[in-house]
């Protein structure tokens, strides 16, 4: 019975997103290209070919049910540090490949969940969450004052942190 409710929930999400896409299409009649808009919008440039979740709630649900870890990127469009990190993240082939093993979410606003801001609401910051819905406080960047911050020069550290999030997961299950 669990399977069935999950499927119907998933179908509901598809219906909702299609309805939203239709409305967006009506308003924006200037753009005649028939390119699919949704994936690009959700990726916000962090990896257009990756599957991104739309909300924190959906991401938690999908992480729990797929048993994949969740990677959450907090960023802002008008923050030069966010933009710089996004560029190297999107162009890093190995990171983009590894990211497929995660449930992915990037946010330009804060959630009400205080666990996602353990040491403040700065951007860019990247947190990993286990399918048990536990924030991985042990996976941090190299700044003691902003534990989950990464600079473009930290991209290899971020890559190994992603590997760490996947590895520890396997040994715990």
Automatic annotation (TrEMBL):
<dbReference type="GO" id="GO:0002162">
    <property type="term" value="F:dystroglycan binding"/>
</dbReference>
<dbReference type="InterPro" id="IPR036249">
    <property type="entry name" value="Thioredoxin-like_sf"/>
</dbReference>
<keyword id="KW-0732">Signal</keyword>
<dbReference type="Pfam" id="PF13899">
    <property type="entry name" value="Thioredoxin_7"/>
</dbReference>
<dbReference type="InterPro" id="IPR051099">
    <property type="entry name" value="AGR/TXD"/>
</dbReference>
<keyword id="KW-0256">Endoplasmic reticulum</keyword>
<feature type="signal peptide">
    <location>
        <begin position="1"/>
        <end position="21"/>
    </location>
</feature>
<dbReference type="GO" id="GO:0005576">
    <property type="term" value="C:extracellular region"/>
</dbReference>
<comment type="similarity">
    <text>Belongs to the AGR family.</text>
</comment>
<keyword id="KW-0964">Secreted</keyword>
<protein>
    <submittedName>
        <fullName>AGR2 protein</fullName>
    </submittedName>
</protein>
<dbReference type="GO" id="GO:0005783">
    <property type="term" value="C:endoplasmic reticulum"/>
</dbReference>
